[in-house]
Design goal:
The chain starts with 10 loop residues before the first helix and ends with a helix. It folds into two domains: about 120 residues, Aspartate Aminotransferase, domain 1 (Alpha-Beta Complex), CATH 3.90.1150; about 250 residues, Aspartate Aminotransferase, domain 2 (3-Layer(aba) Sandwich), CATH 3.40.640. It has a seven-stranded mixed beta sheet, sandwiched between helices. It has a four-stranded antiparallel beta sheet with strand order 11-12-15-14, covered by helices on one side. Strands 1-13 form a two-stranded parallel ribbon. β11 and β12 form a beta hairpin. It contains 14 helices and 15 strands. It is α/β, with parallel strands linked by helices.
């Protein structure tokens, strides 16, 4: 039996199991380790305070913990400096920050390039920016494996390209994208590069200095951390290109009734009271993840994913979307509506996801109206998959 040695670190799983629930929806949001729960409890029970604003002891303690978390995120991503990390309310807010912050750099007939696999969070901000500036939104097609077509990319990325925004790992297809080959095409044209790392950051450590993108965004809640917080990595010189987009307390340096001057990043893009507890919790989560054997985690996830794919492959009528390489599998079943199948799985206590997965244009390109998605965390084990396949067989027996 394929067991997870880290399962007991996530107390909710024992409760869910007692309730007859099997959690296979980690790509939507992950369960939380005890280390995070302890950090949140400690912060809220030992005295909360706002950060950067006062000299009293609770405020100093909160500010130290908050800024320590910034250092931990920078170390996790191998950023050159902690000031390259801006805290946001999530990956979606980070991408909207970029779309508004970079708006002055986009002129009529300039080109913004995305891919056909993007989550709405990495499509709609650029779509709306293109509309505001009368720019062109170009879409990179995919090959049959669900990977961006590099030959098409080479022809579409050109001298009018001002920005390339792509996902590192598709939340539908489970395929790493060829960023090492793709990003230099944009750089050669002087374009800025944005990487949506919401899924990719969960699987392995990614070196921002090697990746050499201008911006990288992530969400805490998919990375086993708390909801309501994310991070924007920006290369030092790239952050200087951003226009301020939200205004209020803390981000202002000098202000009178008719004029204001603002801080540079990161504080200049963290207006108002930030999600202090969540940021501290994210720092504790990264501490926990840093203590794990990365090779063991990767090996466990790979073995579990191979077992998932093997089980789907032998079941009649199951069709995978793309060629998933890790973490998840999205599929349809011939003659069966994904919503009906999801309903029967849910009735049997299987927590999976059904629908378009916030990627409606991708679903249209694949000529499906939705799909079932099974997604795995480091805490899942072979028993979870046995329960899933047993429930799937019972559901298909009724529906096929």
């Amino acid at each position: 039996m394929l067991m997870s040695p880290w399962r007991s670190d996530f107390p909710a799983l024992a409760i869910l199991e007692a309730q007859g629930q099997t959690y296979l929806d980690s790509a939507a949001t992950a369960q939380k380790p005890q280390a995070l729960i302890d950090a949140l409890t400690g912060y809220y029970t030992c005295g909360t305070a706002n950060v950067h604003r006062a000299q009293h002891q609770p405020a100093e303690r909160a500010t130290r913990a908050f800024e320590d978390a910034r250092i931990k995120v920078a170390q996790w991503l191998n950023a050159a400096c902690p000031t390259e990390i801006v805290f946001t309310r999530g990956a979606t807010e980070a991408l909207n920050l970029l779309a508004y912050g970079l708006e002055p750099l986009i002129e009529a007939d300039d080109e913004i390039v995305v891919s056909a696999l993007e989550h709405h969070a990495n499509l709609l901000p650029w779509q709306q920016l293109a509309k505001r500036r009368n720019a062109k939104l170009l879409v990179l097609p995919l090959n049959d494996r669900g990977v961006i077509d590099m030959e098409a990319a080479a022809s579409l990325i050109g001298p009018r390209t001002r920005l390339l925004a792509v996902s590192q790992l598709s939340n539908v297809l489970g395929v790493w994208q060829p960023l090492a080959e793709l990003l230099p095409l944009a750089k050669a044209q002087g374009a800025l590069t944005v990487v949506d790392g919401a899924q990719g950051v969960v699987h392995g450590r990614h070196d921002m200095q090697s990746l050499a993108c201008d911006f990288y965004v992530l969400s805490s809640h998919k990375l086993y951390g708390p909801e309501g917080v994310g991070a924007l990595y920006g290369r030092g010189e790239s952050l200087l290109k951003l226009r301020h987009w939200q205004f209020g307390g803390e981000m202002v340096r000098v202000a009178d009734f008719h004029h204001a001057e603002f801080h540079a990043a990161p504080l200049g893009f963290e207006a108002g009271t930030p999600p202090i507890g969540a940021v501290i919790g994210l720092g504790a989560t990264l501490d926990y993840l840093s203590r794990l054997d990365a090779a063991a985690v990767s090996g466990h996830e790979e073995a579990l994913h191979m077992r998932l794919l093997a089980g789907l492959a032998v079941r009649k009528g199951v069709r995978l979307l793309g060629e998933p390489r890790l973490a998840l599998a999205s599929f349809t079943v011939d003659g069966v509506h994904h919503g009906d199948l999801a309903h029967l799985l849910t009735e049997q206590g299987i927590a999976i996801r059904s629908g378009t997965h916030c990627a409606q244009p991708l679903m249209s390109a694949l000529k499906v109206d939705g799909a079932i998605r099974v997604s795995l965390g480091l805490y899942n084990d072979g028993t979870d998959l046995e329960r899933f396949f047993s429930a799937l067989d019972q559901a298909l027996e009724l529906l096929q």
